Amino acid sequence: MPWRFRTHRFTSGLFVVLLAYLAMIVVIDELTSRYMRLDVYAAIAPVVAAALCTYRQTIVIGALDFIAMTAIYGVLPADVPAITRAGAILSNALMVGASIAVARLLRDREALLERERATGEAAQRALLRQLPLRTREVVVDGFYVSSQRDALVGGDLYEAVQTPYGTRVLIGDVQGKGLSTLGAGAAVLTAFREAAYHRRSLTSGVVAMEQGLGRYNASTQEQSSPDAPERFVTALVLGTDDTARERADGEPPRQDEAIPLLIVNCGHCAPYLIGPDGSVREVELEEPGLPLGLGELADHVRQTQRVVLPPGCRLLACTDGVTEARAADGSFYPLADRLDRWAALSTPALLGRLRTDLAAHTGGHLQDDAAALIMERLPVADQRPREAPVADRL
């Protein structure tokens, strides 16, 4: 049984069962002939304990087994030949010793795996920050499910940062899945975070992301082999321009004012607008755009599209791990239909329902990494004052 399933309740229950098993062997042995040896059956207890119980529980089971079998076959029966006594004691000693040694190795292995898991989790959390993320005016909540077992992140990426020029939000999907895509995702995320603070234009930030991905692909081919695949990344970059939207008195827009969003699409699936009245509509992206890493194939730069986020509206963006998740019969996940049902739910409840239903639709076996984000306005009391641009503070 894998170490992560060894719960305290399970090991405690099994420990009691093994103690009862040993007691039963002793009773049966006393009620039967001396020539009917049961020490080999008693040795099953420490072997099972080594595989499924804790190290200390294995020592206890092994010690009790050795003491009981030594007393029954080595000390009490005077009519048993000496060679038989010695064989019984030696065989039990070997079985118990081997069981304790195996339990010790398993304990050390589990400790190593736990350290590796904690290290991997810290490294992955450094790549993708834990949701929800807050900026000056909005909160971005969501979930991330890796298709690779025991991994927290994989081929999808997201970020939301507050910059001197407004909020910048990214959701993307690296070609491929699992941990092998982390390098390309890290390259795009690093470029996004740096460009967001120094480039006011979303399109120039996208250019920086594409350049970062290009450098990663080039270095990968140089260090591994020329045949290494060049990764590309579909992405949706959203932003607000706080400085342009502020009123004359320098205060941020009121809660009853719409937020104009700027969107640059890099071959990603379209987001959805969820209205306060429960309405849901897919945002019509004017230009699909090419994924990051393929921009040089187009004869023009990617365009910025303006979308209005009305008061009380939320915007849901996801990766194709959600929209293209397949059921056992091959049907895709009906995201639009589900959102129509759940539009009246709060953001945490909607995300929880979506994640649970997605797992049910796929039978718990995602074919690709899946991420979903919902962006909505922060309450007025939680809004923070705007940080002046770097040029204004110098």
General form:
elongated
Give the uncertain stretches in residue-range form.
Answer: 1-5, 388-394
Q: Portion of residues in helices? A: 40-55%
Major β-sheet strand ordering? 1-2-11-10-7-8
What is the CATH topology of the largest domain? Phosphatase 2c, domain 1
CATH architecture name of the largest domain: 4-Layer Sandwich
- The overall pLDDT, averaged over residues, is 80
Rg estimate, integer Å? 31 Å
Separation of the first and last Cα atoms: 61 Å
Number of helices: 12
Number of domains: 2
Helix and strand run: HHHHHEEEEHHEHEEEEEHHHEH
Largest sheet: 6 strands, antiparallel
Secondary-structure content class: alpha+beta
- Give the CATH superfamily of the largest domain: PPM-type phosphatase domain
The level-1 CATH class of the largest domain: Alpha Beta
Q: Compute the number of strand runs.
A: 11
Give the strand content: 15-25%
GO molecular function: phosphatase activity
InterPro entries: Bact_Sigma-Reg (IPR052016), PPM-type-like_dom_sf (IPR036457), PPM-type_phosphatase-like_dom (IPR001932)
Organism: Streptomyces zagrosensis
Transmembrane segments: 12-28, 34-52
